[in-house]
Prior knowledge:
By secondary structure, the chain is of the alpha/beta class. It contains 10 helices and 8 strands. It has 2 domains: 1-36 and 203-231, no CATH class; 41-195 and 232-306, Rossmann fold (3-Layer(aba) Sandwich), CATH 3.40.50.
Amino acid sequence: xLTRTGGKRMRTLLAFVVxxxxxxxxxxxxxxxxxxxxxxxxxxxAWEWQSARYxxxxxxxxxxxxxxxAGHDGYQLHVQLVQNPNPTDRYVILTHAxxxxxxxxxxxxxxxxxxxYNCVLYDMRGHGEGEPTFCTYGILEGKxxxxxxxxxxxxxxxxxxxxxxxxxLGASTTIEALAYKxxxxxxxxxxxxxxxxxxxRQKFKTMHLPEFLVPLVNVGVRxxxxxxxxxxxxxxxxxxxxxxxxxxxxxxxxxxxxxxxSELYERAKGTRELHYVAGADHAESVLVAxxxxxxxxxxxxxxxxxx
Length: 307
């Protein structure tokens, strides 16, 4: 039989455990919310961020056309065509990184203009001018991109060549879209994650958070959003793919492990290349080595056209 003192201690311990469990649940849900949403900049904030890192003045003088495209389940995508000053029948769709918007794709536009492409920029669901919603790390975003590809083909019937270029989440979304067998001629994947779980573990490591939180966060994601982070695996979209892919990744990427690029490259079949950029952190390759980056892309496109 417990003594009065022993019973009090037991109740105190039980209360402590209950409080601890409640706090853990709250922390898990908060982290799950952050993982699926994050702070997303306005177009103005994105413009200021980009302009502080490279010359964006080229963009002002270009002819641009804004329009809406219905993505998966009718979600309205805000799209912008940036026309090449020299008439061309080549087009490339650029997909930005997570918590960014189409302004984040501008760093690649000068290269594609020089290579003779019109550029189609857009805000992924929940980003930029789109209606607020959570991120599914390629699951719904890949379906949106597949719809945008169809629209681009229909809207510009003179297309002779259509490519995709994505950065970070945009790169993983580009890979996810390949599962729907889109009518595209090439894809460039810059610092894509092979699976979200690995990316989250990497992020937790840099933030000094315990990895045991990952499965708990997954529970939170399921409860709040109905998805599992273990189903967010762009690498599986490469099975049966025939679209030529160029993989680029910064050697010093602390957000998405450079190993992801190797895993994606190995899983892909057909025409493909893999290049690492020395000294580049996450999504910095084109800024750290612009000439080298352009050579990667230009050479790859020549390979694709000659194959």
